[in-house]
Amino acid sequence: MIVAKKKPVEEIIEEVKNYEKILVVGCNECVTVCEAGGKKEVAVLASALRMYFMNQGKDIRLDEVTLERQCDHEYLEEIRNIIDQYDAVISLACGVGVQFMAEKYFSTPILPGVDTCFMGAAEERGVWSERCQGCGHCILARTGGICPVSRCAKRLFNGPCGGSTKGHCEIDKDLVCGWQLIIDRLKELGRLEDYEIIAPIKDWSTERAGGPRKVVREDVRQ
Amino acid sequence: MRLRYPSNIRIILLPCTGKVDVIHLLRAFEKGADGACIVGCLEGECHYNNGNIRARKRVEQVRQILDSIGIGGERVQMYNVSSSEAPRFVKIVEEMTEKIISMGPNPIKIARKRKAA
Fold first, then answer.
1. What's the topology of domain A2-118?
2. Region A65-85: what's the mean pLDDT?
3. Alpha carbon of A106 to those of A85, A147, A218, B32, B39: distances in Å?
C-alpha cells in the first residue's frame, strides 16, 4: 500500500486559515489502512479545526466526506455536486489523490492533509516500512523476493558494499542490509549459486529518472 | 463506603477504556466539556488484555491535538484505578476538578456563548 503519515494540525491550520467553507475528504484505501487519512482521521482533523477556528472567533463551515478512492474518476465524481459549496478542500489521500482531485476540480484549491511517504508494508501495528520503489522492471525473481532497489541504501545489484556489518547497513545500525536478506533467502531456497550470477546493467529509464511515467494498456482501454 | 466526590462530573460507563477513541474525547470538548478524565483498570490487569494501554496512547494523542489548537492538553488525563480503590478514585476526581477549575472553562464554551450573544 501507499504509506502516508498525518501532517501536524498546525501545518494544516496554516494552509486553510484564509478559507471559510472547507471540505475534508478522506480516502478508504491505503491511507485508511495506515491510519493517516481514513474516515476516523477525517473526523478527528475536522473536529480539531472546528475547535481551533471557533476559539479564534472565526465562523467557518467544515464538512466531512470519505470516498472509496481518490485515484479514480468514478469516486471523485461523487463530490461533483457539492464541491462548489466550498472555498477549499483538504484531501487526506496520498499525493496521487490530492493531484487527481486538483486536476478534476481545477478551480477549487485542493490542499494535502497527509505526507505521502512510500510504498510499503505494515510490519506490525504502527510500523510501516518501504518495500517497493516502482522502478518499472521487477527483478525480484532473481533476488530471492527481496528488492535491492528498495532495501539497499545504495541500490546495489551485485552483492553488499563494504558498509554491511553483521547484517546491518552502515547508514543506520537498526537497518538490515538488503543484500544480507537476499543472501539469507537464496540460501533458504537452495539457490545460493544464483548470487554468483552477475546482474546486467539496469535500465533506469523505466524508473523516475526517465521522467513522469505512464502505463497504457490497449487491451483494457476503452 | 458511600464516599463523596465533586458533583460536577458526569460518569460515562464503558465496557473498557479501550473503547474510548480520539474522536469521542474531541467531540466532548467540541460540545463544551471543561475536562475529561479516563479511568481505566490498572495496567497489566485489563480484562481485554491491553484496552487501557490503547486508551493511554489515544489520550496522549488528544492531549497533543488540544495543545496544538490552544484548548490545553492538560484538560485530559488518563488514570489507572482498581475497582476496589474507591478512596483513590475520589482523590483523582477531586484533583482533576481542582485542576480544571484553576485552568478555567473550556474556551470553546466561551466562544460559543460569545457567538450566540
1. Rossmann fold (3.40.50)
2. 97
3. 14, 38, 28, 38, 49
